[in-house]
Structure formats: C-alpha cells, structure tokens
Amino acid sequence: MKRFLIILLFITPVFCSAQEYSEVVPIPGKTADQLYTIAREWYALTFKSAQDVIQMEDPVKKEIIGKGYSKIEYKVKKSYAYLNMYFTLQTLFRDNRYKYSITVGDLKTDVSEPFSYSKLKDMTTVEGVTTYFKNEKLNVLTNKRMKQNIAAQNKVLVSLIDNRLQSLVDELTANLKKDTTKDNNW
Question: 3-state SS string over 98-132?
Fold first, then answer.
C-alpha cells in the first residue's frame, strides 16, 4: 500500500492542460432573462460564495462565468484519498436555450503538484503509464501488475471526474427547467 501511494506521487504530472465539455441545451418556454436570473440564483445556492465563484457576469450578453472547485473522494486500496478538481463554468443564455462550457483545469491531491485531466486520461492504460514513466525518466521499480493497478485507479478517477461534471450540468439544467411560476405563490 505504501509503495503504491509513493508511486502515485512519482507519476503525478507537473504540467497542465484543460479538458472542455460544451453543449447547447434546449429549455422551452423560458426567455433569456428568466434563464439568466435562475442561473444566477443557482450559482449562489450551489457554491459557498457566489461572489468568489462568479468571475464575470454580463446581464446584457446574458453570460455568467464562474470558477469553482469540487473535492472528489476516491478509494486507494483500503483507505480514502481526495482529489481537488478546479473548473470553469461558462453559461450563455438565449430564449429557449442555454449553452454551457465546462473546462477542467488543475487536478490536485493533498500530496501532489497540480496535474492535468488529459494526462490522467492518457494514463488509464498500462501503455500510457509505461510511456509516462519512460518520458519522465522515472526510475521507479514497477512491474506490469503495479502499472495495471495505476491504470485502473486512473480510470476510476476519470470516471469520478466525468460523473461530477455531468452532475453539475444536470443540476443546473434541472433548475433552469423548473417551473418558477409556482415558486412565486408562497
């Protein structure tokens, strides 16, 4: 277990590149103004401090850009570790639709330098792990089984990241689709 964790520290990439997901989502029956207002409320309720998260908002262009982070818990052997995922969420609103672009920035564990989502994704195969060790000239003693374990762990992390991003977008979309006329009769 200790050897596995030490090897994970050695394989942490020190350069960053981003992964972006983007989509236009139909929201029938809502104006751009309504969608923008609902999204501002969602940012405020979803993140601890909307003032810290919202980096730019333009009520004329109906655009909000926020930077956030999410802590992802994952299991390594019999213990738990945490991955901090930093991301940027850009939302643009038009009548009956909105567009989101979510970009994964740095990933970081409590004991690592920041690393990139794309490098993590590259290392979800034994070949990717082998290539990384070779390119980085890491002289870590690993056998094929250890590389398989590292690749499998990285697959789990990629899946957890993708699920968290999808969950964030699904939550925003559900809020935008919600019937707000019922909320006014309190």
Answer: EEEEEEEEEEEECCCCCEEHHHHHHCCCHHHHHHH
Domains along the chain with CATH numbers = 2-178 (3.30.530)
Strand stretches in 19-163, DSSP E: 19-26, 54-58, 63-76, 79-94, 97-109, 115-116
Least Cα distance to 83 among 162, 181, 4 occurs for: 162
pLDDT, tens only, 81-131: 899 999 999 999 999 999 999 999 999 987 778 888 998 999 999 999 988
Confidence (pTM): 0.81
Record the tokens describing residue 55, joined without a space: 């980096």
Residue pLDDT, tens place only, 127-173:
999 888 888 777 676 788 888 998 999 999 999 999 999 999 999 99
3-class DSSP assignment, residue 6: helix
Name the residue type at position 62.
K
3-state secondary structure of 73: strand
User: Is 155 within 8 Å of 124 (Cβ atoms)?
Assistant: yes
